[in-house]
Amino acid sequence: MKKENDFFNDVYEVVRQIPKGRATSYGAIAAYLGKKRGARLVGWAMGSSYHQQGIPAHRVVNSQGILTAKMLFDTPTFMQEKLESEGILIKNDKIQNWKECFWDPEKELAL
DNA sequence: GGTATGACTGTAT
DNA sequence: GATACAGCCATAC
Q1: Residue-range domain boundaries for chain A
Q2: From the alpha carbon of A64, which nucleotide's C1' atom is closest?
């Protein structure tokens, strides 16, 4: 079967649509794609493609708003500084106003 | 096709 | 609050 609409592709689409100054969680994306417990796939998919242009992977954090992947970027501060530059307040690698920055694709995209 | 792994999440202790 | 364990799904070997 064709796979042009891979899980990866869907992840890219969603992540690309994350507005500036906002962030979302792996679980939210997974749930939006129908993989209620496939958060790991989202993270894995991102890790395999965060190098690609147009994928603001730094806007994707875990359910607690913690920058779990910051260490995987070129620099451990890249992710935090990037988010801070967009207006997101971060402390201890964790988004302080997480609930305010949280961008839920199921609601925002309102499919 | 089975085993191992992963940027996760939720429940249990 | 922190640690431990289990669940879930796709990719890689």
Answers
A1: 7-108
A2: B9
Surface-to-core class of residue A32, CB atoms within 10 Å of its CB (0-12 exposed, 13-18 middle, 19+ buried): buried
Look up the CATH number of domain A7-108. 1.10.10.10
Amino acid A49 CA to nucleotide B3 C1' distance, rounded Å: 24
pTM over 0.70, yes/no:
yes
Q: Which residue is nearest to nucleotide C7 (CA to C1')?
A: A37
Condensed to tens digits (0 to 9), the pLDDT of residues A24-83 reads: 999 999 999 988 888 999 999 998 888 888 899 999 999 999 999 888 888 889 999 999
